[in-house]
Design brief:
Radius of gyration: 18 Å
Helix content: over 70%
Strand content: under 5%
Structural class: mainly alpha
């Protein structure tokens, strides 16, 4: 029961983080937001790592694996993740993000010789059906910015899911070797922060101004809820519960974000949105439970 509560709490924090990112859309650009979020996340996770003594669990090999994970899961995926939220809104972004499960399945098959069974294939089909249903259903395009937002948002969302799946695949050897979770996240977010800061050397990528104080608070809150608190809850759930159950329940973000959107906008999501989110979560569950 504790694992269930922790997993659902993790999913809720991920949804809350997406809502906080969406709240600064139009005032803070994707690169600027990613820069601040990763820098603040590094400060939080590095402090926790120092308290726990986690840096002793990192060797050269673990660091290299985590650096590769940061390149795919942070430097690439964080930028496209933020941009996808700004284009599609948090609801559709959370739904498209469930594509990380099929991508993880494909990468495992390609690089780890893991088999793909019929149940997992059905899970992939349900995820795709859920995304299509939510987009094509009534009100499916609410929250998107501009007529070209759908195609660009879906493209960036797909890149985000692929980057996240690749980042998880690359981080796995380091975690199996005993890397402490907060320290692993500190390395990933720290390298990501350095990357985004280095982009300031390119004049065209420099922001016109620093974020407003209120926006900086929201960015910090998104880093705390989504990276620091969310990942902590997920690690705690994995420590006391079955991996399949934890992974499935922590992937319920597309459903949990719907009442948040309802509360903020005052408009109830349509039946297609709920059905699409449910199909995507069910598909993720099938892939996870059927995995060896």
């Amino acid at each position: 029961m504790l694992a269930v509560a922790l997993s659902l709490a993790a999913a809720a924090t991920f949804a809350l983080s997406a809502m906080q990112i969406d709240s600064v859309t139009g005032r803070v650009g994707a690169l600027q937001l990613a820069r601040w979020q990763m820098a603040l996340a590094f400060g939080m996770t590095a402090s926790a790592s120092l308290v726990l003594g986690g840096w002793r669990t990192i060797g050269v090999e673990q660091f290299l694996w985590l650096a590769g994970s940061s390149a795919a899961g942070i430097m690439l995926a964080t930028t496209t993740y933020v941009a996808t939220i700004q284009l599609l809104g948090p609801r559709l972004n959370a739904l498209v993000f469930t594509l990380s499960a099929p991508f993880a399945l494909i990468l495992g098959y390609a690089f780890r010789a893991e088999t793909v069974n019929l149940t997992q294939g059905a899970g992939v089909g349900l995820i795709l059906a859920g995304i299509v249903l939510a987009i094509l259903g009534p009100g499916g395009r609410e929250g998107m910015r501009g007529p070209k937002a759908l195609s660009l948002g879906l493209t960036l969302g797909t890149i985000t899911a692929l980057g996240q799946a690749t980042g998880s695949l690359l981080a796995r050897p380091a975690m199996l070797a005993g890397a402490e979770p907060f320290t692993a996240m500190a390395i990933r977010s720290g390298l990501g922060a350095l990357f985004f800061i280095s982009l300031l050397a390119i004049p065209a990528l420099r922001p016109a101004a620093r974020p407003l104080t209120t926006d900086t608070r929201r960015i910090g809150a998104s880093a705390f809820s989504g990276i620091f608190l969310g990942m902590s809850l997920l690690m705690a759930a994995l420590a006391v519960g079955d991996v399949g159950i934890v992974t499935t329940l922590s992937a319920t973000t597309p459903i949990l974000i719907l009442p948040m959107v309802w509360f903020v906008t005052g408009r109830a999501p349509g039946l297609a949105a709920w059905a699409g989110a449910a199909l995507a979560v069910l598909g993720t569950a099938l892939i996870t439970v059927a995995s060896p």
